Amino acid sequence: MAPLLTVEHLTKRFGGLTAVNDVSFTVEEGDFLGIIGPNGAGKTTLFNLITGFLPPDAGEVRFKDQPITGWKAYKISRLGMTRTFQITKPFGHLDVKENVVVAALQTSSTLREARERAEGVLRFVGLESYRDRSITHLPMGLKKKLELAKALATRPSLLFLDEVMGGLASDEVQDMMEVLRKVRESGVTLIMIEHVLQAITQLSERLLVLHHGAKLAHGSTREVIRDPEVVEAYLGEVDPDAVH
Ligand SMILES: Nc1ncnc2c1ncn2[C@@H]1O[C@H](COP(=O)(O)OP(=O)(O)OP(=O)(O)O)[C@@H](O)[C@H]1O
């Protein structure tokens, strides 16, 4: 069977800077892939290229055995690939539940279906008691959960997470990790950019390391975090026992 996602020779230049340089990898259904690398390594740009938020200069993306290179994000989302954003972008004038309903509407045929789905997702991520709250003063941990809830409301089969742990306190990181384990158990394939190494090494079985836009390493988490080039470029000291 073909992989769920195939990325081949993906490249993006911004003027003289090659932000993503000839990156290829595949993801099988059920995988949990972590993407790590120093600031500016090209991780978010790679997400943008795959999920339709930026067109690549070269390379191809196939999802569910269909070429989707250059497709718009909304069309890709309807096919079952969704992403979260590093900087959360909720609608400030809508409450928590309404934000999730709007996201669910992208892939629902009726408002009723979108509302029901939103209720289910809010329960799933543990936001049901905040459903009627204004999002303006939500703490960061809940904003990140809302971002996740919005993505889940589109019913993705492949979900891209861009630093969902960023800015969270350690108890919030634990909480988010539990939710992500549940997402995974529900059958969603996950690709996650994260600087919180303890979280990403515990959750992901495989890691892709980007450095200066290019693939520095790709393999099992255990192997990659021991790779001397990866340690040199990014990791420094990581406790090898604290991994998946
Ligand atoms: N729209 C843009 N125009 C010009 N340069 C850009 C643009 N987007 C990203 N870049 C540059 O491309 C490079 C890769 O950026 P990107 O945000 O993908 O890195 P990253 O690995 O996600 O970084 P971080 O870990 O800090 O989020 C950086 O040098 C960045 O300044």
Automatic annotation (TrEMBL):
Query: What is the protein name given in its UniProt record?
Result: ABC transporter ATP-binding protein
Q: Which organism is it from?
A: Marinithermofilum abyssi
Return the GO cellular component terms, semicolon-separated.
Answer: plasma membrane
Q: Which domain of life is it from?
A: Bacteria
- Entry annotated with the keyword Transport: yes
Q: Which InterPro entries match?
A: AAA+_ATPase (IPR003593), ABC_AA/LPS_Transport (IPR051120), ABC_transporter-like_ATP-bd (IPR003439), BCA_ABC_TP_C (IPR032823), P-loop_NTPase (IPR027417)
Residue intervals of the ABC transporter domain: 5-237
SMART domains for this protein: AAA
> Which GO biological-process labels does this protein carry?
D-alanine transmembrane transport; L-alanine transport; L-isoleucine import across plasma membrane; L-valine import across plasma membrane
Q: List the Gene Ontology MF annotations in alphabetical order.
A: ATP binding; ATP hydrolysis activity; L-isoleucine transmembrane transporter activity; L-phenylalanine transmembrane transporter activity; L-valine transmembrane transporter activity
Keyword annotations for this protein? ATP-binding, Nucleotide-binding, Transport
